[in-house]
Specification:
- The structure is a single chain.
- By secondary structure, this protein is α/β, with parallel strands linked by helices.
- The chain has a single domain, classed as Metal-dependent hydrolases (TIM Barrel), CATH 3.20.20.
- It has eleven helices and nine strands.
- Helix 7 links the parallel strand 7 and strand 8.
Length: 327
């Protein structure tokens, strides 16, 4: 069996979920440790993870390189990789990128829906592309080995990040807009540029990103993956479930609104979508990855290709992305 890697979760972490990771043979998970938190607030989240690593060493440990995924498989544990869904943990200090890399951060989104100091989010009316600081941040992330993630970014900003970066970038959790026209999903132009440059796309199982939402069928999801493989190549594809398991609805308000507004956010955060949607019946938690793996061969994928989608492609990307840039 190939490796199993989920390149985005933001669950309400607990021993139950860590044990479900093991029951699901999940070798690695990229976890969100910041949505809107500043540096000090994000440090508190690192402290919480350090306590979980200490409390459950037989289940989880912190990952830093691709080899930690291999070690996770060998020792029957799950490697946990840190990432940010917003650049707020670096505040306005470019040197904090290296500090965070040393603390284990391996992914950073340049935006989370809104305009940031670095780029434009997908909910803004006008996309100005990368800012001056954004270009500097991309260069510094390239240097230290932190992956540029454009999952919540607008199209021009994403295309400029792909063009400006000297290393492949990622969209860790989104789906093609041609499959489901959610604001957060990605255009064919973006996905073509991403994948031809060596970048990775992680397919999301978050219902707002799925065709027919919570009622999306597993066959429809797998057919979408098959079409994407034909368009972009199977080696550029993986999974980024965007699983928000056991989170209270108050957390979704924090995710979408942070502190920037007193109003209910628009789009996915509108009043009609105020809480967490129900997961599709084929994906509830970390034990559900086996259902996707079992279904993919029915859509033309061979054993090696299935293994790639389930995690081997992410492992290859981790191997080349997390260390310093080669001179």
């Amino acid at each position: 069996m190939g490796y199993r890697v989920d390149c985005l979760q933001y669950a309400n972490w607990s021993e139950k979920i860590f044990r479900q990771m093991r029951d699901g043979n999940v070798d690695a998970v990229h976890v969100t440790i910041a949505y809107h938190e500043n540096f000090r607030e994000t440090i508190l989240n690192v402290e919480a993870w350090n306590r979980w690593f200490q409390a459950f060493p037989d289940l989880i440990f912190q990952g830093f390189t691709g080899d930690d995924i291999r070690r996770a498989r060998e020792t029957g544990r799950t490697a946990i990789f840190f990432g940010f869904q917003n650049p707020s943990p670096i505040e306005d200090d470019i040197d904090l990128i290296e500090v965070w890399h040393r603390l284990g951060a391996r992914f950073m989104q340049l935006t989370y829906n809104n305009q940031s100091l670095l780029a434009t989010g997908c909910y803004e009316d006008d996309d100005a592309g990368l800012t001056r600081m954004g270009k500097q941040a991309v260069a510094e992330m390239n240097r230290v080995g932190m992956v540029i993630d454009m999952s919540h970014s607008a199209d021009r900003s994403t295309l400029e990040a792909i063009d400006y970066s000297t290393r492949p970038i990622a969209i860790t959790h989104a789906n093609p807009k041609w499959w489901h026209d959610a604001l957060r999903n990605k255009t064919n132009e973006v996905l073509c540029e991403l994948t031809t440059s060596g970048g990775m796309l992680g397919f999301s199982m978050y219902p707002h990103h799925l065709n027919n939402g919570s009622k999306c069928k597993l066959d429809d999801f797998c057919q979408m993956i098959a079409k994407a493989a034909d368009k972009y190549g199977v080696r550029a594809l993986g999974l980024g479930s965007d699983l928000c398991q056991d989170q209270p609805d108050s957390i979704v308000t924090w995710m979408r609104n942070g502190r920037w507004t007193k109003d209910v956010d628009f789009g996915e955060g509108s009043a009609s979508n105020a809480g967490f949607p129900e997961q599709p019946n084929w994906f509830h938690d970390n034990r559900s990855f086996a259902r996707i793996e079992a279904a993919l061969p029915d859509f033309g994928f061979n054993k090696e290709e299935v293994a790639g989608i389930m995690g081997d492609n992410w492992l290859r990307f981790y191997d080349r992305s997390f260390g310093p840039a080669k001179k």
